[in-house]
Amino acid sequence: MKYENILITGSSGKIGKALLSSELGKRKILAPSRDEMDITNDKKVSAYFEKNKIDAVIHCAAMTNGRECEKNPESAIKANVIGASNVVQAALKSKARFIYMSTDYVYPCVKGPYSEKDETNPFTVYGWTKLEGEYAVKKSENYCVIRTSLLDTKKITFDTAPTDAYVSKIPLEELVEAIIFLLDSNFVGIINVGRERASLYDIYKKYKPDIKPVSIKSIPKEQQRAVDSSLDITLWKEISKKDSIK
Q1: What is the pTM of this model?
Q2: Which of 47, 19, 45, 26 is nearest to 34 (CA)?
Q3: Domains in the chain: ranges and CATH
Q4: Are 34 and 56 in contact (CB under 8 A)?
Q5: Is 217 left (phi over 0), alpha (psi -120 to 50) or beta?
Q6: Would you say 198 and 166 are in contact if contact means Cβ atoms under 8 Å apart?
């Protein structure tokens, strides 16, 4: 089903902006600012849904800075848990399809690749709040939770990357295609979306050849880098091969 009347929360973020500039932008898109619809205010969220016809929601709004989440867990809970719950509650009334952007950090991040059926045991505040958001989303009968790790190939600001930390990062452009595909699909449930397991160094070196290799042991503990948050993407490959997404 090709959904129209799509609400994108967090439209000023990387994923939100990329969605707006993609082919999805040709449909009727609602991209309210925080002033127009503060997700942490249930009354404002309900009022926005009542004023607008909404057939689907892509929930990108979140507090994503790991350090800020650790410093201000109350703010992280307000944005990532309460905010998600408010949007879900409003979406339930309109029976809208709900796409929720989650993270690989809901897993223990010690020894991947993790499948959708593996234990969730986050080691960061950010991971815990996103996992709590997932629980809220499961109230919907028509939902898709996308666990992923974004790679912004155009903005690699650091000069070193660990050779012994493993991920399944996916470039922003590919992630946007995956989101649109899953939005219009009849898939309901949780799905890992990413590329095959690789070290952070090997991934970033493709886009920044002069980046230097380091060990994860040299990274300060306060940066809370996962040892192995890689994803088992078997389910994603099975679903996406039915379409042109690669």
Answers
A1: 0.95
A2: 45
A3: 6-151+169-193 (3.40.50.720)
A4: no
A5: alpha
A6: yes
